């Protein structure tokens, strides 16, 4: 967490970039901000640690070129959102807001993919693995 207790940010990402934030339930979610500071995408999935959230983001970043979105009309209100389906019941990532026009939503997804692919790979510590001796002791 940063000094304000507001989550983890990538170096130089004060206005834009990846950010993992702790939710009220103690779990983590991540978001991606554009260079102008506007939140572009959020993950509805929850992670137990900030490291898990960072690994989830990095996995998505690695596959940015092959991502496809499902564009749907919002259930309540007016507008369209884009959603990248995940392997679990929840979407992997979705737009942070609804767009008035279908075409605007499509363009927003394209901009998200470009922004995602420009994010640097994260240097993450490997999850702890218990060592096993092979010399019989």
In brief:
By secondary structure, the chain is an alpha+beta fold. Helix content is 22%, strand content 22%.
Order of helices and strands: EEEEHEEEH
Major sheet description:
7 strands, antiparallel
Helix content: 10-25%
Number of helices: 2
With strands numbered from the N-terminus, the spatial order across the biggest sheet is 1-2-3-4-7-6-5
Terminal Cα span: 41 Å
Portion of residues in beta strands equals 15-25%
- As residue ranges, the low-confidence spans are 1-13, 129-134
Beta strand count? 7
CA radius of gyration is 17 Å
Can you tell me the overall shape? globular
What's the mean pLDDT score?
Answer: 82
Helix-strand category: alpha+beta
Describe it for me?
The chain is α+β, with helices and mostly antiparallel strands. It is 22% helix and 22% strand. It has a seven-stranded antiparallel beta sheet with strand order 1-2-3-4-7-6-5, covered by helices on one side. The protein is globular and about 35 Å long. The N terminus is likely disordered.
How do the strands and helices of this protein lay out in sequence?
Layout: E1 8-9, E2 17-22, E3 28-33, E4 39-42, H1 50-62, E5 70-73, E6 80-84, E7 93-95, H2 102-118
Antiparallel strand pairs: 1-2, 2-3, 3-4, 4-7, 5-6, 6-7
Notable characteristics:
single chain, about 140 residues, alpha+beta, globular
